[in-house]
Design a protein that fits this description.
With 435 residues, the protein is α/β, with parallel strands linked by helices. Helices cover 35% and strands 22% of the residues. The N and C termini lie far apart (48 Å).
Length: 435
């Protein structure tokens, strides 16, 4: 059968999709890039916030529209977080969907394709997949994500992930090393470690994290960069900062979601740090010369104008390298959903947009100081509109941060590293030329 797939949401979901596709290829199926060619369309959904749910529903409707145009020939499978969280609702609302699988049902994908092509319906949720180390990369061949754990035990009051993905579960080090070696052997140069909480990797083994142990083993493989995403602030100790600063292959980059600076709201969010601890941590990371990305929630229930102004002042004075701002999304079944004083959507969006504009100004101002410097850049892609190559420094993660647009007089190759002199800026991006 010809299989088409759409992966939505985070990079952890992307890895799930890649492993699902690898199972299908191993079973003799063919992957296609066009929905018109596909016999089976898979939509791997996200349900983290309202906008993600809306996007997932839109893609399911698009897949069902394609099925209708094919005269019912095509089959549609819905998988992922939305499927796991809203199985009954999806069955009721989308009776033309042929199969619905939750986030731990991908071992069933081959059997599911066989059953739906025979005319059956398949609904499965919350089984227990075995570790699967094969991948069909959907990223450029020179970088890949390694999902080192699933689930979460942090129980932030606004987040439904523990309900969707369950308790924090780390993959075995030997399994991850075997998977990573295949990626390195296939030419991957940047390995990006992802989980709901990378900093707690292995804590479910024996009560203490094993992230340093894992990374040091990964450094023995043929990667040039190892990037760590999603480090929870209470876990970023002095030892952790020194580790990132000094390990030779670890990019000097941290993604540490802070969510707010006001102490009262941090408690309501069930964040395990105080305002002063956040301020101290940020200073330590910056003093170590490490690029810092973070995220903040705007419009959490009860957030006053004064608390928002405090957050705005914190962002303005701190000048984060990168920051994302999200309007609070009310998720049913979470403790925050039951809090009083929920804000109007317009207020939440206005606050998030205001901080996004502020952060854009901060990035543009910082970029001016980089003009005249040289950066080691990994060549990712081509921007045909700008007629320039697209790359990233070690301080830029793919898809979420800005990029380096550059020119070259000689031939260049995607996936290779080049020294680029920064000559100017374009929007939030840097512009340069190969030295």
């Amino acid at each position: 059968m010809k299989i088409g797939a759409i992966s939505l949401g985070c990079d952890k979901n992307r890895v799930d999709t890649e492993k699902m596709l690898a199972r299908l290829v191993a079973g003799g199926h063919t992957l296609v890039g066009s929905e018109d060619e596909a016999d089976v369309l898979i939509v791997n959904t996200c349900a983290f916030i309202d906008k993600a749910k809306e996007e997932s529903i839109d893609e399911i409707l698009n897949a069902l529209s394609a099925k209708s145009k094919s005269g019912g020939r095509q089959k549609v499978i819905v998988t992922g977080c939305l499927a796991g969280r809203y199985m009954d609702e999806l069955k009721s609302e989308f009776d033309d969907v042929d199969a619905i699988l939750g986030i731990a049902d991908y071992d069933k994908i081959l059997d599911t394709v066989n059953k739906i092509t025979a005319g059956d319906k398949v609904y499965a949720c919350f089984s227990d997949d075995k570790f699967y180390g094969e991948r069909v990369l959907t990223t450029p061949y020179h970088y890949a994500y390694l999902k080192i754990a699933d689930g979460c035990d942090n129980h932030c009051t606004y987040c439904a992930i523990p309900k969707i993905r369950g308790k924090f579960r780390s993959e075995k080090i030997e399994d991850l090393l075997a998977e990573a070696k295949k990626l390195a052997d296939d030419g991957v140069k940047e390995l990006i470690l992802v989980a709901q909480d990378v900093s707690r990797y292995g804590i479910d083994f024996d009560g203490k994290p094993h992230i340093f142990e894992l990374v040091r083993e990964l450094e023995k493989l043929d990667f040039e960069w190892i990037r760590l995403l999603y480090l929870y602030p209470e876990m970023v100790t002095d030892e952790f900062i020194d580790f990132v600063k000094n390990e030779p292959k670890v990019t000097k980059y941290m993604d540490v979601p802070l969510q707010h600076i006001d102490g009262e709201l941090l408690k309501k969010m069930n964040r395990r740090v105080t305002e002063q601890e956040i301020r101290t941590l940020v200073k330590k990371i910056k003093d170590a010369g490490i690029t810092l990305r973070t995220t903040f929630i705007c419009g959490f229930p009860g957030e006053s104008e004064a608390q928002f102004d405090k957050l705005k002042a914190f962002v303005k004075e701190t000048k984060f390298d990168f920051a994302g701002f999200f309007a609070y999304s009310r998720e049913e079944g979470t403790p925050a959903d039951k809090l009083p004083n929920h804000l109007d959507d317009e207020v939440k969006e206005k606050r998030a947009n205001e901080l996004t504009l502020l952060q854009t100004k901060i990035i543009k101002e910082r970029n001016k100081g980089l003009v005249g410097t040289e950066l080691r850049v990994l060549y990712d892609d081509i921007d045909y509109d700008e007629q320039m190559f697209v790359g990233r420094s070690a301080g830029q993660a793919p898809d979420i941060d800005n990029v380096v647009l550059f020119k070259a007089e000689d031939e260049v190759h995607i996936g290779e590293f080049y020294n680029v002199k920064i000559t100017g800026t374009k929007g939030i991006d840097l512009v340069g030329e190969i030295v």
